[in-house]
Amino acid sequence: MIATDLFIAARNLARHTRRNLLLAAAISGVTALLVLLTGLTSGMREAMLHSATTLMTGHVNLAGFFKITSGTAAPIVADWEKPWEAVKDKVPELVYAAPRGRGWAKAVADGGSMDLVLAGIDLSREPGFDKVIQVVEGSLAELGKPGTILLFQDQARRLGVKPGDTLTLSAPTTRGASNTADVRVAAVARNIGLLSAFNAFIPAETLRQLYQLKVGTTGAVQLYLADPADSAKVAARLRAALREAGWRVMDPDPEPYWQKLMFKVNAEDWTGQKLDVTTWEDEMSFLSWIVTAVTWLGNVLVGVLLVIVAVGIVNTLAIAIRERTREIGTLRAIGMQRTQVLRLTLLEAFLLGLGGAAMGAAAGAAIAAGLNATGIELPETMQYFLLQRDLHLALHAGRVALAVAFVTGLTTVAAIWPSVWAARMRPVTAMHHVG
Amino acid sequence: MPEPIVEAVDVAKVYQLGKTEVQALRHVDLVVERGEFLSIAGPSGSGKTTLLNLIGGVDVPTAGTVRVDGEDTSRLTERALTRLRLDHIGFIFQTFNLVAVLTVFQNVEFPLLLQGRMTSAERRRRVETLLESVGLAGHARHRPSELSGGQRQRVAVARALVGNPPLVLADEPTANLDSKTGGTIIDLMREMNRRDGTTFIFSTHDPKVMSHASAIVRLEDGRVIGRESAQGAEAR
Ligand SMILES: Nc1ncnc2c1ncn2[C@@H]1O[C@H](COP(=O)(O)OP(=O)(O)OP(=O)(O)O)[C@@H](O)[C@H]1O
Ligand SMILES: [Mg+2]
What we know:
Chain A is α+β, with helices and mostly antiparallel strands. Chain A is built from 16 helices and eleven strands. Chain B is an alpha/beta fold.
């Protein structure tokens, strides 16, 4: 029976080729859009993960705050090797770990000045760094020498500097006084969206000097894992292990460290060292609104289109069923049950939905692949918000399949009303003569 | 004596047309014995179609009872009524009413699929036998649109008979055919009636068609005004 149902449904669809093709095209259009949008949002997420980790955060960070008085906190971990040694055996997922200094300074050059978030980096410990940074001028190796800085294109432009030029960094130290350091521009790197607007890198040693910190003090130990998806799990494990080993550890809080520093830690009543284990998602949470916004915009767009398509389906099926009144009446008269009529009509919509959605998914995937291959450079404002320089859409078979299932399901659901109507059709309609 | 295949007692059917009521049938009593080849005759609007609809279980009477193969159609659920039509009644329509997207073979096979009792090999054999006996063995793969009116009605006859129902109803089966083709369809139905003992009830305007019947029930203005043995009726 199912085979015959399938056959009838397929033949019915084939009978009104134009009408159904139009509908299938609309369904596939929406599916393609859905695939592209999920591709874009996951592309953004992936780009964020890819560029933000390494630049700003590890997959997991063993960080912390030190307070001399309860009102003056610094984002530092003193003697970082001690807590790290105590727990590093607990992270079999680890690929490598490296300490990063954290700071904030005003950069002044002949051409201008700007605020920079500084990372104190030890290049020799960070094999992943040069995979993310694309140097356009100067050389990355220079950053290995003390008293240097790596800027991004926009920053270099704003400050009016090029490799070899000097600029002055002015920073508040932990003791409240201000300290300055002259640094030489080692290299200028290609912009990486919003992240490159305010992040700059100097050697870890230079950062310590600027803040007058002891050797052995760092901002965070950044951990890189084989699979970033393990981050939350590893973070929880580290937190527990550190507590066990007697450290004071802050409760998980999905905010970047600088927000905690500015709005939270200073208001708390404690002094000394507290450790804070965070994930890349915590550190990037201030950017996640972009992904959320794009996701929502996309959802609204797709939602509106889906409603239109659903109305089209209801309409088209209603027409198809009206045209088939006598046929359905006949089938009912010769002994087809209401439920069987319902199944038949739903099956027709299901097939239409599946066909349209599959076509749309294939088209969407092809377009995405094409866009990726073309390597379209985004306009600068877009680069900021999409966190990518070149448009990259991430395609995952699972998500594409989900989009197909979703649209097919919706098509079928939209068909319920006309199908019930068809099932209610009285068999006596088969007897009505022509007209 | 076996019970009659159809037994209508004091049947009335009222159609509501806006505020006016149409008395399509009133006080109709009718008994149809198994194996009859019965014609229902009467002028247009006399209630022939209405009566066949009630007997066929596609509609239920406003008053009175209609029993088909012992079942009171008014007392059955929608589901059971549908099952009654599937298993006990074959339908032949004036306008053939084949499923356009299915082949001749698939159209005839359809009731068997709905019944779901036969294997596909059994169905194939049964459908081929039926197509053979209506003279369409060579047309199994055609679609209805590729057939003439007479051929389509033959397919409909095969479809009505394929499930081996004790009763076949035909509302003006020849009205859309020329008289020669119509004659061959009636001959075919008569042959099936003789061969398998299937009861046929058909309505018609055409005296020539009526003449094949074993009995004629005459309707007028919603009443049975007489029942007679037709000239062509042979003693059974
Ligand atoms: N669905 C309906 N609604 C209202 N009135 C109806 C309906 N069907 C039939 N009637 C009326 O009931 C009466 C009997 O109609 P019916 O169709 O049974 O006659 P008939 O003998 O089959 O006529 P014909 O030879 O023209 O087919 C007619 O007056 C008709 O107008
Ligand atoms: Mg009629």
